[in-house]
Amino acid sequence: MDVNAAVAAAAAIAGVLTGVIAMLAFRWSERDQKRPTRTSLHTDPVLPPGVDTVLSVLRSSAVVLDEADAVVKASSAAYALGLVRGGKLSIEPMLQMARDTRRDGEIRQVELDLPRRGSGRGEALAVSARVAPLGSRLVLLLVEDLTEARRIEAVRRDFVANVSHELKTPVGALSLLSEAVMDASDDPEAVERFAGRMQIEATRLTNLVQELIDLSRVQNDDPLEDAESVQVDELVAEAVDRCRHQAGTKQITMAAGGTADLHVWGNRGQLAAALGNLVENAVNYSPARTRVGIAARRVSAPGGDMIELAVTDQGIGISDKDKERIFERFYRVDPARSRATGGTGLGLAIVKHVVASHGGEVTVWSAEGQGSTFTLRLPEAAAARDRALQHPDPGLDDEVGLTEPSPYEPLPSPEVLP
């Protein structure tokens, strides 16, 4: 009896101990689950409510750091800029700013130049970094990319400087010539000579101001707001008429050829100005008794048919180093010749902006002493594409003047224009 009682008591004690151990194990497991781990510190729940949503809509690159400088949250833009690598902030000046802000709670801001990822040209990214405390443990870093803004500002400064210089030349010449006219008031022949020079400088000044207005307009306006189907033949005829007098003075033959009845989609005035600038340059930079040709054709492209307009001359040509810069504002291949022809250095810049805003491109082939070929590629009008499907054009393999030809090759069946 005593033995049975002892066994029962031992069993009861063992059951109680098992229950206590099980309860303690359950409590320990529950507490262990609630304890923050290294992984849980880097997940969204540690962020204050609403912060994750705000960071997702910011245009700036955002990085949130904890008290151990580990990245809790980082936007995709932060990774793209190379700010975060291996779960750590990789920019030492920004990391030091974060530590200082965590220590004293002050908001800090600095502008830095960062190496561009994947670039072997040594280019730098200009960024503005701002660090602020986020709660009691976290620090928020916002980084704004200022590279494009810096580039635009540099372009604006150069443009203002170039405009000032270009305007100063004819204005100064007019001032000196007016003084010469006054001093030669008793010499009719000298007055007539100086007045002729004044007229030339006034014309140059007028052309410069007009081209500045045209450049500003094509940069600020959306040409496709008033887009229409424009007949290429009309653009060519207008460009030829614009340069007929200069060509006749230099006995330059102008020839138009290629595929007829083509249409492009865009602003008629801007397209006429772009083609007119190319033809005018061809005439101005060609020697006497040579030829300028204009040819058009349709070419296939992945996004739809394109119209190519090529202007070929037998002029002085362009060197390889100058080809890379000829579409820059105020850049001249031969400054002395540009002054003689009244060039402003804005014509090709206007062409580039017009073509780009119409969804096309402009290319150039040239060889020094042989001439140049400028080619415009513009989207074909939808109506013209429909007509082309019903009445296909003949093959274009024999057309000349569109893909790096010799400028001396004749245009196919040209219409010679006096």
Structure description:
The protein is of the alpha+beta class and 418 residues long. Helices cover 46% and strands 21% of the residues. It contains twelve helices and 15 strands. The strands form four sheets. It has a six-stranded mixed sheet with strand order 13-14-12-11-9-15, covered by helices on one side. β3 and β4 (88-89) form a beta hairpin. α5 (147-183) runs antiparallel to α6, α6 runs parallel beside α11 and α7 runs parallel beside α8. The longest helix has 37 residues, at 147-183. It is elongated, with a radius of gyration of 36 Å. Mean pLDDT is 76; it is low at 32-45, 383-389 and 391-418.
Q: What's the SSE pattern?
A: HHEEHEEHEEEHHEHEEHEEHHHEEHE
Straight-line N-to-C gap: 138 Å
Extract low-pLDDT stretches.
Answer: 32-45, 383-389, 391-418
| Main beta sheet strand tally, sense and closure | 6 strands, mixed
Number of helices: 12
Return the structural class.
alpha+beta
> Strands of the biggest beta sheet: in what spatial order?
13-14-12-11-9-15
How much of the polypeptide forms β-strand, as a percent range? 15-25%
The gyration radius over C-alpha positions equals 36 Å
Determine the fraction of residues in helical runs and give it as a percent range.
40-55%
Count of distinct strands? 15
Query: If you average the pLDDT, what whole number results?
Result: 76
3D shape: elongated
Oligomer: single chain
